[in-house]
Amino acid sequence: MKLYSTNNTALRVSFKEAVFNSMPQDKGLYMPVEIPQLDAEFIQNIEQYSLPEIAYKVASVLLKDEIPARDLKALIDDAINFEAPVVKLDEKTFVLELFHGPSLAFKDFGARFMSRVMAYFLKDGEQLLDVLVATSGDTGGAVALGFLGVPNTRVTILYPEGRVSPIQELQLTTNGQNIRAIEVKGTFDDCQTLVKQAFADDELNARFRLTSANSINISRLIPQTFYYFNTYAQLKKQGFSDVLFSVPSGNFGNIGAGLLAYKLGLPVKQFIAATNMNDTVPRFLESGVYETKPSVQTYANAMDVGAPSNWIRIMDLFNQDLEALKKVVTSYRFTDDETLAGIKEIDQKYNYVACPHTAIAYLAVEQFRKENPQDNSAAVFLSTAHACKFPDIFPAHIGAKIEIPEQVKALESKPKHAGQLGIDFNAFKEYLLSKA
Ligand SMILES: Cc1ncc(COP(=O)(O)O)c(C=O)c1O
Ligand SMILES: N[C@@H](CCOP(=O)(O)O)C(=O)O
């Protein structure tokens, strides 16, 4: 597999280089030079395969010989060792539960695959790998668990003070070992900017071997394609051929992976990018003007992103052709009041408790159906996190239905350890240098 930069299509790097560099020097993002089509026979018979089998097929077609077959298979079996059930809510409405991994969010797919790929490529005696990650809530927890105890790696998590839920904060700050957390007086976008500044800093690059565990890293995206294929397989088994996905979106890595799956040959009819009031993308699709805004705080906190990193990848997948993209992708935004109403509606209609991010994806399906009454597709909305991560959002009668998983109960007795910083890059740099 060779990759180029969205800012330089002549560049060529290997998958290993892209994984460790995270981002090209020119500040673009890595994209595969070739997006091969999965063979028609595989797609026609996809319902006969299990999730790990599908994952292996997709990864091997994309990665080619970057990781030998037997190693890739073992790596995938180890990383993707949990379920992604497609739950039927009514005749044509399904929720894809992506929160059955250790951190209770869809990020486990990307983080576990990435940590194992990095561990695979790391050689004994190499310089310590410093993994930087900015989180608005869920990525940090998944990356922490993915890398916990991985030899020769150290993870630094930056999160916005007061903007992650208490459970998310415990997941970030109670790990110890090779994981450390920094609470930043700012927004998620500020955290993301600090991390990107670190990658561009000569002194830090000379001193440390820096890499990113955010979705700017291509190894986070590839494993997220697996569950789109697997869901299609589950629905095909039930006789559906027209499928649409509604994806709660913040940094647009998740829907970016879905669109990569589409370009690999997954026959999806429609993607819906569902956002909260951090609505850079829906505004862009309406107006054609791409204008980022400082993020605003919402109930769906992990989607509080004003400058979505992966949008440039999505435009690149469609060769910057906005009209072509709009044939496949539509986007809706929802306020907090609407999100809460969505949570109540899903509970009432289906006796199902959805986290605020998931509720936004559900609302987007309803909106799409209202605007396209002739559309007969099976609609899948992605449930990206376990509801227990956001206990303060739910009315008491709904909150009472949420079962608290054992791993969350275990966190409550653990002490929080986090550094504190502002949004000044020099202070962050000083912090990194002082803890070298
Ligand atoms: C629960 C949840 N839903 C949705 C999102 C948005 O996903 P993406 O950033 O891939 O668009 C996130 C964060 O990434 C999240 O943690
Ligand atoms: N919503 C994310 C934000 C981090 O973005 P990613 O693109 O690295 O997934 C989170 O939960 O932290």
TrEMBL record:
Alphabetical UniProt keywords: Amino-acid biosynthesis, Lyase, Pyridoxal phosphate, Threonine biosynthesis
Involved pathway(s): Amino-acid biosynthesis; L-threonine biosynthesis; L-threonine from L-aspartate: step 5/5
Q: Which cofactor does it need?
A: pyridoxal 5'-phosphate
Where do the Threonine synthase N-terminal domain residues begin and end? 4-79
The UniProt entry's coiled-coil ranges are none
GO MF term list: threonine synthase activity
Write out the catalysed reaction: O-phospho-L-homoserine + H2O = L-threonine + phosphate
Domain Tryptophan synthase beta chain-like PALP, chain residue ranges per copy: 96-382
Its EC number(s): 4.2.3.1
Q: Which PANTHER family match?
A: THREONINE SYNTHASE FAMILY MEMBER, THREONINE SYNTHASE-LIKE 2
List, alphabetically, the NCBIfam families matched: thrC
Family recorded in the similarity comment = Belongs to the threonine synthase family.
What is the name of this protein? Threonine synthase
Q: Which organism is it from?
A: Pedobacter punctiformis
What does the record give as the organism's lineage? Bacteria, Pseudomonadati, Bacteroidota, Sphingobacteriia, Sphingobacteriales
